[in-house]
Amino acid sequence: MSETKSEEPTVAVKLFVDKERCKVLFAESGYEFVDVLFSFLTLPLGTVVRLLGKHSQVGCLDEVYKSVEDLSADYFQTITCKTMLLEPFNAAEDLCSDQLKVKTDTNPRAVYVCKETNCCANSDCAVTFVRGSICKCGRVMEYIGEWPQDADYTAAPAGSNGVFVKGCFMFIITDDLQVAPASTSLMLSLFEKFRVRDPVFLEQINLQLNAEKISSLLKRSLTTNQALTALYFNVPCTNDDSSIYTLPENLHCKQEADVDNKPNNVKIKVLQTKNNLLLLYAEVGDDFIDLLFGLLSIPLGSIIRTYGKRSSTGCVDSIYSSIDGSTMGYMNPERLMFLQSPNVAPFYGSGASNMLQAKEEAPRQKLINRCFKCFKNDGFSCHARCEEVAPIFKLKPTVDRYINCKVWSASPNCNYRPFSAKLREVDPKLPRGGSHISVGFVKQGVQKFMVTDDLRVLPLSLTSTFQVVSESKIPSNDLVEREITLTEVQVMELLRAAVVTRNTLSSVLLPRRM
Known about the structure:
This protein has 514 residues and is of the alpha+beta class. It folds into two domains: 11-366 and 427-509, no CATH class; 380-418, no CATH class. The chain has 19 helices and 17 strands. It has a five-stranded antiparallel β-sheet. Strand 15 (449-452) and strand 16 form a beta hairpin. The longest helix has 13 residues, at 211-223. It starts with 10 loop residues before the first strand and ends in a 5-residue tail after the last helix. It comes from Zizania palustris. InterPro entries: DUF674. This is DUF674 family protein. Pfam families: DUF674.
């Protein structure tokens, strides 16, 4: 493993390596490295794909991500819907960006506002965190500054300087990323497990991991059960699809007569071979696409909470299980909710988040001590305009004498008395910043889409269907179209399969091969 540059922020970790077997047995670190590991659980899946590259090997999510990139903005509720899916916000952003020593994703909370002085939406005091958002008046909202950190929200609990774990302890991390407080009994049990007769033969390697190495570890945690070994010895990542076949026994059973009337069911058509060996693509509507695209906004921890060990082909579930297990007494209790049940950011709710029971954070609000028009000019950093509007004393004549009287005098920069305005985050998914109930990312009823087995999404057309059929080299008389009403169980399995296999549709919708 190459050394990191000294000027980059790094976290320290000590590896205990069996060089003969080319294996990292375990590691020891302080709270900083463990905090970074736990922060993986807060990352939205779209962020994971963006960090790891288009060939992330996290199921088919790279194809879903690329499909969002390639689809025209005409298929989305607003042009900003694409930005939201490609750069999803982390609901624990304030904690992770402000306090983690090494950040895997730097996505500052830039604030955008309509800078038109006479905007029809001035009374709303509307702001957004998504670049390219459109104001009610139709203008593009512009950058105004970064949302100030809430000291009460981000401050570390008393007696602790860690983000998620208490800072006064050392921790042991196994090769499959189980985390536990260091102890003699744990050390002895690890020696016994790995048949270490003389610890002197273990090589101790001190590493300083920068953001690039941490991202590499994230990738290993999703694709292998020997994450530390793969990181140190630079083992190529490979994906094992074996876990996808542990599906519920009733998944392929005959559908019930009233299946069409049940909530959360989705109708699709599939083109497959008559012998049930291959599924070419599915013809779907906006409801299915919104479920699929909504996955990109779901935090990794929510996927693990729902599916457990079946949530990946790697060992990232070990990080999650450590929260309720061996490290429970060493966690900051005020921060547990960000890891156990991570939420999606405001307005990122979708069919996928509803089905996976990932709650949506409340929209942000902030009280400022100036008028909204002056805020549009000065942002968060300067209070000058409204502060120039100050009370002065003037002589006012009465019947028999002059008296001092307190009156208002307007500054040239502001024609309003000083008052407080409450900034309100608005929904970027709504055209022109509307205030009605939020909808999905994809326009409803625009047209049908084609979804391939590896979840590549294309607008349904003769050209796209012809290309897929031609590339399959299957005679047309061997193909058959089936209409399916997906039950909630099947939809849940499709969402899981999207994270763990490259053959998502066929692995769930075709009978299992014996």
